[in-house]
Automatic annotation (TrEMBL):
Record InterPro entries: HAD-like_SerB, HAD-like_sf, HAD_hydro_SerB1, HAD_sf
Pfam families from the UniProt entry: HAD
Family of this protein: Belongs to the HAD-like hydrolase superfamily. SerB family.
GO molecular function: hydrolase activity; metal ion binding
Name of protein: HAD-IB family hydrolase
Annotated spans, Disordered: 1-50
Gene3D superfamilies: HAD superfamily/HAD-like (3.40.50.1000), SG protein - dephosphorylation function (1.20.1440.100)
Lineage, highest ranks first: Bacteria, Bacillati, Actinomycetota, Actinomycetes, Kitasatosporales
Leader peptide range in chain numbering: none
SUPFAM superfamilies reported in the protein's UniProt record: HAD-like (SSF56784)
Keywords assigned: Hydrolase, Magnesium, Membrane, Metal-binding, Transmembrane, Transmembrane helix
Transmembrane portions of the chain: 285-306
Residue spans of biased composition, Acidic residues class: 41-50
Amino acid sequence: MAALGWLTPRRRSATARSVLAGEASAEAARKSSQEATVSEISEDSSEEPEFPVLGDEKAAAFFDLDNTVMQGAALFHFGRGLYKRKFFETRDLARFAWQQAWFRLAGVEDPEHMQDARDSALSIVKGHRVSELMSIGEEIYDEYMAERIWPGTRALAQAHLDAGQKVWLVTAAPVEIAQVIARRLGLTGALGTVAESVDGVYTGKLVGEPLHGPAKAEALRALAAAEELDLSRCAAYSDSHNDIPMLSLVGHPYAINPDSKLRKHARKLDWRLRDYRTGRKAAKVGIPAAAGVGAVAGGTAAAIALHRRRR
């Protein structure tokens, strides 16, 4: 999708970029969506669960990806796979490793880290074909992502599918990665950050901005309008306070593995909470500090050793 000349980042307001990113993501998601299998509706309504409501075609569910559906950041795991395939050098892998470790320890999304990860990913895929990255994404899912899916969150998504509702991933990760994960999990589709491509080749630029924070809410609005959904009957799930705009749009918001700010907000508004992490205190969001430091040290040492062997 080629960006219009007058829609340059410098001349767009933050709100306009969010709207553009949301609309672009919704369009990409609708094009790639697959029809969810609708379960047969029992005639005995007294046995139906209160939520999700069986057969409610005006309802859908929206799931954040990183640390909500999957442990860690999808972009990091994708980066590992690209490194394995020699898309970039050791120093870039070390940066990916540090960003991932910081994300897991702090349990929040740092804007500077996200910007760095986004710029790195765009520079890496520039000049490659979209179809190539989609094919590689399938392999990377099996190698690094499949075993990191939270069973509890997966069960929540399946409950919506079993009720005959559509289920979408909504993530700042590239839409191509999100689509692969959604397809492999049997979900309806995915909304994600849309990278610009011309004739099927990445240009190294974005359409709008990353699907993050307010942009996710704009994407939900756009998709709900296109799908004729009633957001008051929909559900949304996330771990991050950055997704409060998205969670606030729906009638059934859930805080999943929440960071401290989202946990506080959810309790104040009586939102439902689910925490599928183990080996942590309730207030903790990341992995234990000792384990996190060990992971960083081990990953960095491995990267340095590999670099020395190649010299």
